[in-house]
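Re: [ENG-882] Designed sequences occasionally contain unexpected residues at chain ends

Forwarding the minimal case from QA. Structure tokens:
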């Protein structure tokens, strides 16, 4: 009932900061490119990094940063070419490897992304967000045990990252370990008690272990925080129906359909009058 939390390359890109590594012309262009990138002027940043690369054609850092700018412009192919070139020039540039892995992840090339994340982890086994990204790739490949292992490692390294508990909870649910999923979502709620999606997910997990009263309480809280999410009303209606609270369930179904008519097919088995319409 929940989607994998989006933890994609555009939120995790590593921009290499200026360093006095080049001749003045290349350094000035590089510095300008970084400034423009940080100001979200990505076309101008590409132009600046072009000048840096022309003046210092063996700068892996310049290729990495131009790749980031291309990615922001939606030019993933150009971004990948730049990351490839950066890694040819410096095979140990883990930042470029991570950035390339994130692009591949965003393009749903999960196996290739995992290979890049593997290499980054070899270089830096204490980088929690690399474990998160690799865990998400495993999650998308339905390799849930491996996903949990990566989220476990990420949690040890960064126990305050809400995304870890959110996504590990989803992996636990896919493995049928719903009690562990409840624990993960409970931790996510402690860290971010104003996030309705965490309550919705814990409610889903509660429902799978038959704790319907607890599920309804969480759906109630989720609706308080996110009253425009039709899914939550639909989910609560299903659980209320299981609790034999048919009138309340019908009200939730009606509310869900008013907000999102596309839920009609999903709710049809639960709402008698919808059949045949």
């Amino acid at each position: 009932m929940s989607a994998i939390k989006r933890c994609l390359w555009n939120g995790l890109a590593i921009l290499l900061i200026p360093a006095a590594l080049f001749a003045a012309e290349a350094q000035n262009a590089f510095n300008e490119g970084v400034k423009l990138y940080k100001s979200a002027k990505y076309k101008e940043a590409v132009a600046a990094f072009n000048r840096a690369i022309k003046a210092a054609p063996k700068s892996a850092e310049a290729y990495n940063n131009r790749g980031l700018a291309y990615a922001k412009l939606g030019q993933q192919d150009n971004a990948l070419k730049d990351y490839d070139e950066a890694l040819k020039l410096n095979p140990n540039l883990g930042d470029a490897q991570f950035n390339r892995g994130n692009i591949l992840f965003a393009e749903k090339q999960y196996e290739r992304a995992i290979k890049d994340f593997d290499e980054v982890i070899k270089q830096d086994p204490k980088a929690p967000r690399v474990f998160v990204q690799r865990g998400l790739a495993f999650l998308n490949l339905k390799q849930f045990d491996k996903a949990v292992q990566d989220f476990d490692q990420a949690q040890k390294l960064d126990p305050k990252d809400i995304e870890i508990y959110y996504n590990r909870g989803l992996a636990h649910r896919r493995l049928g370990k719903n009690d562990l999923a409840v624990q993960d979502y409970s931790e996510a709620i402690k860290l971010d008690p104003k996030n309705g999606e965490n309550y919705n997910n814990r409610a889903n997990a509660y429902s799978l272990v038959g704790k319907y009263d607890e599920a309804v309480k969480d759906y109630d809280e989720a609706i308080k925080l996110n009253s425009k999410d039709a899914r939550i009303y639909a989910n609560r209606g299903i659980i209320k129906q299981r609790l034999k609270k048919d009138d309340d369930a019908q009200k939730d179904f009606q509310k869900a359909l008013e907000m999102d008519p596309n839920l009609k097919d999903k709710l049809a088995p639960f709402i008698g009058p919808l059949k045949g319409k």
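QA comment: On inspection the terminal residues look reasonable. Residues 24-38 form the longest helix (15 residues). Proposing we downgrade this to a documentation issue.
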